[in-house]
Amino acid sequence: MPDLRALFGGTAAPLVGLDISTSSVRLVELSDAGKDGLRLERYASEALPRGAVADGNIENLDQVVDAVRRVIKKSGTRARNVALGMPPAAVITKKIILPAGMSEEQLEVQVESEASQYIPFALDEVSLDFDVIGPVARSADDIEVMLAAARREKIEDRVAVAEASGLKASVMDIESYAARAALERVLAQAPGGGAGQVVALFQIGAQVTHCSVMADGVTVYEKEQPFGGNSLTQDIVRAYGLAFEEAEARKKAGDLPDNYAAAILAPFLESAALEVTRAIQFFFTSTPYTKIDRICLAGGCALVPGLLDIVAGRSRIATAVVAPFAGMKLAGTVREQQLRTDAPAYLVACGLALRRFG
Question: Where is the SHS2 domain (predicted)?
Fold first, then answer.
């Protein structure tokens, strides 16, 4: 029976991270490079037909399975254990306080009892997992526990994709958690390791932008906004009379008429910068925080020409595009120049692949 029991764990066996998004399937495989840290063994992606995945739900199992099989073949991986991600909106998370000193079995019983207060579904319709975070400040008799719950049917859909593709779903994570794990590894390489900083991560996907804010490594704010790269593609469709797939391909290739930059791209960049600055203002008004030290951009849209500069200019905050494989060794089959272009879209897949190492 699929559940979230692997949500907070890891596995030493070879494992690939498989990110199933609205627009594509992305795969990452990492290995232990000993004293040199980690090595990127392989990565690959395959586009999904429109509508195969919508709002995080797998609507066409066969189309998703076909894409996963193609990405496995393209990557050349022989690993069969896979870490999958659940959309944040599909998972309920809650920090709860429980008495310290309980056994694992007692904790499970208590967590199920507490979960019924926060989950708007019957418990037999959901899968649960929990992780003990640690003792509660100023209360040695209590511990803080993270509870996670998701509808069983949504987990089963992803497990079914893995099994139909010849894979074993060994880990089920939350996409936003995986992205933050990958980002934390990158930030740890910076001077001071990011200590004491407030960092905002904006993952700009095809349909949704996910904002996470971390203060000194702890997530203090999350929000999703209905904005993404598909709006730029739709503008291209309307302006030039192209089919959506052709518009998407020509957008990525930069093969568009001379007036594209001024007439289509510039308004999109203004809208993207507005979404970011609005999210930041909402963060300030809804939390005690009054500053953000750094903005990190990721997702398929992170490298849209001009986006980095306009976000930095409008927000007046130091802004960078995330390079999730920074500091890793590269296998001989990985083309470094191509990786620089592709990498920002692989933040979630990289975070999922990191679960191999706990």
Answer: 15-183
Task: Name the nearest CA neighbour of 328 among 34, 44, 36.
Answer: 36
Question: HSE of 63 in the Cβ direction (CA atoms, 13 Å)?
Answer: 17
Backbone angles phi, psi at 334, to 5 degrees: -85, 125
Please report where in the chains the tokens 């407030």 appear, as a residue: 198
- Chain-centroid distance of CA 3 in Å reads 20
**147 near 133, Cβ under 8 Å?**
no
Cβ partners under 8 Å of residue 153, min gap 6: 125
pLDDT score recorded for residue 12: 60
**Going along 91-226, which residue ranges are E strands?**
91-99, 126-136, 139-151, 168-174, 198-204, 209-215, 218-225
- The side-by-side arrangement of strands in the sheet containing 198-204 is 218-225, 209-215, 198-204, 294-298, 319-321
pLDDT digits (tens, 9 = 90+) for 51-82: 999 988 999 999 999 999 999 999 999 999 99
Q: What pLDDT does 140 receive?
A: 81
Closest alpha carbon to 249 in 267, 265, 237, 261: 237
Tell me which DSSP letter residue 13 carries: S
Q: What is the DSSP letter of 48?
A: P
Which residues share a beta bridge with 15?
81
- Note the pLDDT of residue 3: 44
Unique residue bearing structure tokens 């910076």? 190
Taken in order 308, 312, 315, 320, the sign of the CA dihedral is: positive
23/300 Cα distance (integer angstroms): 9
**Residue 317 host element (H or E):** none
Opening angle at CA 90, ends 84 and 92, nearest 5: 110
Amino acid at site 245 = E
In sign, the C-alpha dihedral spanning 177, 179, 180, 186 is positive
Q: What is the pLDDT of residues 114-170, one digit of tens each?
A: 888 888 888 888 888 888 888 988 888 899 888 898 999 999 999 999 999 999 999
**CA distances, 122 to each of 65, 118, 126, 132, 307 (Å):** 30, 11, 7, 24, 44
Q: Which residues pair with 20 in a beta bridge?
A: 25
Q: List Cβ neighbours of 271 (8 Å cut-off, separation of 6 or more).
A: 227, 231
